[in-house]
Amino acid sequence: MNVKHAKTDINAAFSMAFIVLVAILMVSASSVVILLYQGGQGERSAEIQPAKWGDDVKVDYVGRLSDGRVFDTSIWSVASNDAMYPKSLNFQSREESTYSPLEFEIGNGQMIRGFERGVIGLVVGETKVITILPADGYGPLNQTKLKSIQLVQSLPVFESMNISTFMAKFSVSPEMGLALIDPIWGWDASVFDLNYDADRVTVMNTPVLGSLYKVYGDPEAVPETGWYAEIEDVDSSANGGLGVISVRHILDPQDGGRVKGIDPSGSEFIVMTVDSLSNSIVLNYNSEVTGVTLYFTVTLVEIVNK
């Protein structure tokens, strides 16, 4: 045997075996890396699982109107701090113990549609501002719940009505000369004439010229309700003897959405608009959050596994 050729064959065989061994080690190492990567990916995916349709979730939220006032929240530090978080007219404060993350199932109809959809895709700890249009919120304004009054009103000095209307308005039976307080305007009045046979009562209103009267207010309401009206003129001989009282409501356009009132029936409303050019005030008996765009700052606290 040729020794040289034998050595060459042995070296070649050893080289080939080494190459094969290296290849096997590389494949094995790659398999380990792939397994480690896939394992890590599985754990990471579980950690950042986003909220989806059908999940039971807990969220903290702050609901605001377009001007930034808070109308609802799940967070006590927001609810209790009016300086940092000004409140809307209909904000309802509660006991501290009642404030906690809101729990609901996405898609079961507990929440308004825009809120549910806005939570989808959030991961635990993530915060998002959700903009909700009326169609996905509390719906459009009910136009039948809007009432218009004049910014400057003309009212009679002498006001006639039947006895049942008088009793409904003043909550008392009529008597000649009976002293009264007008339930809407707050000025003095009295029974000027009474005719049971004709079922007629005439009330004489006697406001003081230049005085301010609180209207549409409830002294026990929180926040404060109503506003002031000024008597600009009183002419008892005008309008064919019925007289005219000219009353100006002390409101301006900036008061729109920021003044709340209560009418004689006890129904609440919000002054929606004040327009001096058209001499009109629109009173809105809809909910404060109806017909407006809402802004919710939402933080996903937990996805609850059922």
- Strand residue percentage: 25-35%
Please tell me what the overall shape is.
elongated
How many strands? 17
- Please state the structural category: alpha+beta
| Rounded Rg | 37 Å
Tell me the major beta sheet. 5 strands, antiparallel
Mean pLDDT: 87
Order of helices and strands: HEEHEHEEEEHEEEEEEEEEE
Low-confidence stretches: 1-14, 16-45
What distance separates the N and C termini?
79 Å
- Count of separate DSSP helical elements: 4
What proportion of the residues is helical, as a percent range?
10-25%
The domain tally reads: 3
Question: What's a concise summary of this model?
Answer:
This protein is an alpha+beta fold and 306 residues long. It is built from four helices and 17 strands. The longest helix is centred in the first third of the chain and has 45 residues, at 3-47.
